[in-house]
Every structure is written in structure tokens, then in C-alpha cells.
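Progress note, sequence design subtask.
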């Protein structure tokens, strides 16, 4: 039986420490690795004087192989090419992209080191699954090491339109490396179409049908695999004592008011500025909601060493203060703005207490907060999900209230629609959304990708 080898920038296997909440992705991949005696390879998160050393250990019943990066690697590969070049570009923000040759060189160097580190640990029939934009060229590097294994790649963020991608120096070389994968998975059909458009119109490729595209003398398969959450576990979390305590705490603090919730990493792709502006518009458009509603925005700081993230934090601090200063009363503030993280079970309780979930990114591969919000709701009195048309999850969650986050007046109107929605319609929308969340969960995502990777390779052989 083939082993599954997962390779990602960071290893996210569950720990053995009691009470530590882990993400659904880590749970799903770890379960598969345990079942098949597989291995998870990636950066330890530690910075060492020299990079490349490999340590193999067991974490949470999963075999993990960890490598270290040095300061130059972190600066050029991680903070540089991954987070200052690819992340903003793939999220349609070329104005925030930093193009530096040293970043490109660091990206290639670390991918080479990953390939050199994992290659000796592989056996002939291992099935390799590479995760995300940090490691796009890894298959090509592994082929250089002599690996003939079945290799698949999954992109967790959006793939950009052709003209956006073409602003990237060496974009053709980057796409060329992707044809060393047997299967490439994207979150949405929109990303699949954008990749195909580039291959056909700029890389001189061919569409062979059935998801196969040919370019650079090679054939790969492309398809959409929308990721889900560990829905059953999240529903259980929403009914846990911790969640119940947080739900009660939030409802007490509401004091009869309606609460809207937003939960994101502090990132310019999440549309937080536009959300605050639209909420300010709502308070102006519907003054009857003054003192009767508030927005709880949880924005967890991230990548604080990147200038663009420091800028967005400063702007949100200023904007939230301006809105509160203009609208607040002595016993009410319209925005509760929180810069800290919460456990999954704590968030489940907070979600359950919220009358409206605001998920309005400007561009997102999928956005699992939307699915978590639905999974946490009380079936007898569910809240309403407002979802950006530019979130990947909008392709699946059509019973949410879909908005254009750039249109503040339309978002204002949609907030009013959500807050005034009758119970019967809230329940109808919730039931349809919940069916999708439970059906298309993270386990079905994993199983579909691995099944297709095996099938596509057998077909190729």
C-alpha cells in the first residue's frame, strides 16, 4: 500500500498536548497519514544558523520530518517571495507586490533544499501531495533528484487572471514547473479557468479535455477541489461546555442588541476596511439601529514584519476609532475591535451568539470562516451569513446573502436585510447551507484529491 507524503511550508500535525485545538485541515491530513503510515515534511518554524538539517519524530501519532531555515531563507523565501510577491499578486494586489531578485533566488533555494531533504526519505510507490504557493516548483526540484513518484499539488489561495500573473517576472518559468505534477487542484472553477486561460493563451498549451492540459511537452490534470471544514467536529465544538460558556457570555454582553461577527487574520485581502466603511454607511442609512446592533470584529495579527500588514493595522485602528467616535453613546459602541486569537471551541460559541456573520473578503481562495459560522448555528434560531462574491466559498454557498464588498451601499442594504430576515427564511437558508457544509467537508476534500491523483497516474501509465 502506497504511503501518503504531505509536504507543506509548515507542519501542522496535532500535538499530544491536551486541550490544544487544531484545524480541520491538520486533522484530515493527519488521519490519512496515520492510517497509511505516511509522513508530513516541512519547516519546523525555527530559525537556525544553518538550514537543511532534518529531524524525524512522532507528533500526535503522525511521523513528521522537520527542517530548519536560516535567517536569509526566512527573509527571502518566506517573508519575501511567498508573502511579499506571490501572496499579494495572487490576491489581485499587484500594487503591493515587491519584486526582488534575491526573493526569487531564495524561493528557488529553499524549494531545492526541501527537495534534497525529502528525497532520501521517499520510496518508489509513495504518493506525494504538495501544499500551497510556498512550494509551487517543488515537483520540478524532486524530478531533478530522480523522483518518479506520483505528485499532486493543491493551491489553497486563488490563482490570478492571466494579465495579473503576467506582471510577475519569470511567470512562464513558474508555470512550467507546475507541469511536473500529475494533478493540480484549485479551490474553485474560476481558478481552474484562469490557469487554463494562461496555459492556452500564453504558454502555447493545448486543452486535451477531461481536465487535461498540455504544455512544455508535458501533460497535467487540473480540477477544482473546494476545501471544507471538519464539520462534525465543529458542530460538536459548538455544543461543548466552553462554547456554551462563550455563547452565554456574548449574549449577556449583547444586552438585547443584535450582534454581527467578523473573524479574520489581519490581512488586506479580507476587506476589513471596506467592511468598516460599509457598516458606517449602514448606521447612516438606518439610524433606527443606533444602540441596537454592534459589530464584533476579531482580527488576529499576522506577518507583522511585512510593511503592508503594519499599514493595514494602523488604518483599521484609525477607522474603527473614527466610527466609534462618531456614532458611540455612553452605553454603546458600534464596533468592538479585537486583535487577538481565540480557540476553535471559543469561536464556535461566539459564532452561535451572532445574528449575522460578515465574511466579505476582497479575494479569497475559499474562506472557511463562512462554513464555521454556519456549522455553529442553532438550527431553531440560526443567524444569517453575508458572503462576498469574491470568496471561493460563494461558488458553493449560494443560499448566503452574496454581496460585492466594494459596494458599500449594497452591503449596507444587505446588512439591513439580514437583521430583519424572518425566522422561516433564516431556517430555510441555514438548512441548505448546512447540508453543503456537512456533505463537502474536509475529509471528502482529501479523499477526492487522493483518489483522483491515484487514478490520473494509473491512467497516465
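Output:
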Amino acid at each position: 500500500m502506497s504511503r501518503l507524503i504531505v509536504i507543506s511550508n509548515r507542519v501542522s500535525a496535532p500535538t499530544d498536548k491536551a486541550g490544544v485545538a487544531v484545524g480541520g485541515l491538520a486533522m484530515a491530513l493527519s488521519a490519512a497519514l496515520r492510517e497509511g503510515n505516511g509522513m508530513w515534511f516541512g519547516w519546523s518554524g525555527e530559525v537556525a544558523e544553518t538550514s537543511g538539517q532534518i529531524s524525524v519524530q512522532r507528533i500526535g501519532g503522525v511521523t513528521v520530518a522537520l527542517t530548519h531555515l536560516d535567517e536569509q531563507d526566512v527573509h527571502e523565501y518566506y517573508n519575501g517571495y511567498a508573502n511579499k510577491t506571490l501572496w499579494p499578486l495572487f490576491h489581485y494586489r499587484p500594487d503591493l507586490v515587491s519584486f526582488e531578485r534575491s526573493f526569487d533566488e531564495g524561493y528557488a533555494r529553499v524549494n531545492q533544499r526541501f527537495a534534497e531533504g525529502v528525497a532520501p526519505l521517499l520510496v518508489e510507490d509513495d504518493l506525494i501531495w504538495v501544499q500551497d504557493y510556498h512550494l509551487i516548483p517543488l515537483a520540478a526540484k524532486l524530478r531533478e533528484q530522480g523522483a518518479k513518484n506520483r505528485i499532486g499539488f493543491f493551491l489553497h489561495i486563488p490563482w490570478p487572471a492571466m494579465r495579473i500573473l503576467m506582471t510577475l517576472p519569470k511567470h512562464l518559468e513558474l508555470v512550467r514547473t507546475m507541469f511536473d505534477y500529475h494533478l493540480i487542484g484549485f479551490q474553485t472553477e474560476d481558478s481552474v479557468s484562469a490557469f487554463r486561460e494562461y496555459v492556452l493563451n500564453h504558454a502555447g498549451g493545448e486543452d486535451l479535455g477531461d481536465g487535461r492540459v498540455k504544455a512544455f511537452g508535458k501533460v497535467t490534470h487540473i480540477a477544482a477541489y473546494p476545501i471544507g471544514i471538519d464539520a462534525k467536529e465543529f458542530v460538536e465544538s459548538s455544543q461543548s461546555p466552553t462554547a456554551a460558556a462563550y455563547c452565554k457570555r456574548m449574549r449577556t454582553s449583547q444586552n438585547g442588541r443584535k450582534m454581527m461577527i467578523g473573524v479574520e487574520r489581519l490581512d488586506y485581502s479580507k476587506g476589513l476596511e471596506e467592511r468598516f466603511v460599509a457598516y458606517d454607511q449602514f448606521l447612516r442609512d438606518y439610524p433606527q439601529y443606533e444602540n441596537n446592533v454592534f459589530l464584533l470584529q476579531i482580527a488576529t495579527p499576522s506577518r507583522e514584519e511585512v510593511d503592508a500588514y503594519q499599514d493595514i493595522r494602523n488604518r483599521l485602528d484609525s477607522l474603527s476609532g473614527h466610527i466609534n467616535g462618531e456614532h458611540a453613546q455612553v452605553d454603546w459602541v458600534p464596533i468592538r475591535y479585537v486583535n487577538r486569537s481565540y480557540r476553535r471551541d471559543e469561536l464556535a460559541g461566539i459564532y452561535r451568539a451572532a445574528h449575522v456573520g460578515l465574511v466579505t473578503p476582497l479575494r479569497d481562495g475559499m474562506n472557511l470562516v463562512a462554513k464555521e459560522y454556519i456549522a455553529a448555528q442553532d438550527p431553531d434560531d440560526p443567524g444569517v451569513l453575508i458572503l462576498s462574491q469574491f470568496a471561493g466559498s460563494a461558488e458553493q454557498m449560494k443560499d448566503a446573502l452574496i454581496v460585492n464588498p466594494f459596494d458599500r451601499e449594497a452591503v449596507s442594504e444587505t446588512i439591513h436585510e439580514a437583521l430583519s430576515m424572518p425566522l422561516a427564511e433564516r431556517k430555510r437558508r441555514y438548512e441548505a447551507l448546512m447540508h453543503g457544509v456537512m456533505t463537502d467537508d474536509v475529509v471528502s476534500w482529501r479523499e477526492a484529491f487522493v483518489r483522483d491523483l491515484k487514478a490520473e497516474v494509473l491512467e497516465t501509465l
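The first strand starts at residue 4 and ends at 10. Work on this subtask will continue into the next period as scheduled.
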